[in-house]
Design a protein that fits this description.
Oligomer: single chain
Strand order of the largest sheet: 13-12-14-15-11-16-19
CATH topology of the largest domain: Rossmann fold
Shape: globular
Distance between the termini: 60 Å
Structural class: alpha/beta
CATH architecture of the largest domain: 3-Layer(aba) Sandwich
Number of helices: 25
Number of domains: 3
Radius of gyration: 27 Å
Largest sheet: 7 strands, mixed
CATH class of the largest domain: Alpha Beta
Length: 556
Amino acid sequence: MIDVNSLLHQEFQISQTDLDKALTFQKKYAGRLEHILINMGALSEDLLPSFYAKVLDVDIFEADNFQNIEIATLKSFAVNNELSAFNWFVIEKLETTEQHYLAITSDPFSVEANQFLSQNNILVKVKVASEEQIQSIKVLFAKADTADISIVEELSDLEEDRLRELAGEAPTVNLLNSLISRALKARASDMHLEPIGNRYRVRFRIDGVLKEADWIAPRMRLPVASRLKILSGMDIAEKRRPQDGKIGMKISNEDLDIRVSVLPLHDGESIVMRFLRQDAISYSMDMLGLSADIEKNIREDIAKTAGVILLTGPTGSGKTTTLYTFLNAINDETIKIITLEDPVEYQIEGINQVQIQSSIGFDFAAGLRSIVRQDPDVIMLGEIRDKETAQVAMQSALTGHLVFSTVHTNDASSAYTRLLDLGAEEYLLNAAIISIIAQRLVRKLCVHCSQPDTNQDANIVKYNLQPLADAYGSKIQLHTAVGCEHCSNTGYRGRIGIIEYLRCDDAIKTLPKDENFPTNAVRLNQDRGGRTLLQDGFIKAIDGQTTIEEVIRVAG
């Protein structure tokens, strides 16, 4: 029997130190040794086919053979309807016995696949393929499955028992678990299941950008949707109105909350899962990537005892994470902090977090009136949506509370206009607001593969970068995205904030709050050393943290 540890050490150049660490982790938490080494960064995922081939003494499925695979051949083997859920595909019938096949897979040790083969007395000779090959075949296999829609698609709303039965069967469970695991491995924040024709298109949102990941066959569409509804506490028979729910699960010893949203479309239901990983976020100012001058100003603001600090930006721009970071920076035993959120996404020790319940009339305005009687020092409102909330928030600031909140506007100065449109009085805004921070998120360059921009000189002239670099004492180091195994060939890994900071001092307060205010406020802010979102993004690009193209995409 092959010594796996020696194989990893001698042929795959895994250091004994890394092996010992991985074995210790495996002993404590279980898991596959090769997966632990990959997560540690000690073993490249590209080497898995070679590793499995040596351990099992089987052949590697060559790239030339991959090009010759015909989907019609795969569809001719009924066993693939089940095995495809485990990322196994039969490609040939072997003549030795009645149920003896040649199959390819990127995971020959899959417990579920081997259990299925054993239970059905199926013999398989395995060739090991790369994960990319298997996923490409799986997408084509699902896309080709547009023929006769099975009876699963024709189930009526009344057949709930059958839907529940299908939702609990192994192929459905394994398919959904596999998709969630792949999404988490890819660092996805969301997974989208969108009906197209008779199938579901699966897309992952990675660093704010959607990427197609898979297709779900027609026969699996209803079972997968039903399982998600059951797990998140929804009505599986209801297909006419939107529904929301929550799933709590543990994956790889990590507690995971999944917010599920179902929206009825013309040709089915769109399902979006948002992954909330408590351990994945560090509420540290350093993680926000703030420029030194902006961080200094913000730290001064959040140290105040009264006033309003507003964050602006569209959905998904990181406002909530930034607010949590500010709260975490001032959170200690001498301060009482209460938040009003819809929903409470992440729990922070030492902070009193309140969930809004609009269905019973407990909205932001009602909640704010209640929590001011709890004697808080700091209040955080998830969002200012109406006149009453705006008025109470400003009045709370004037009576000695530090208030954090968000509004949906494109830039910092437009927050004034938005609040005035809601009905807040100008004198209250002038008296209460300390500062307004507009935020966007741009993707960070992958540190493993980024390269100097060969068009740097042209870009410096095109975007007038030299004066900006001189103003902030930066040396221009433009880089471009390339793509490698560490960033899923995107050239980017992770995100960083770009900020427009507007301090609402006497000069801003005295400006007329008319239709010209946003323009005048931006001009005044720049005259005293401030910068727009685009300019702050250019500073990040000048420092080599992101690309000019990414800044233009987000803030241009």
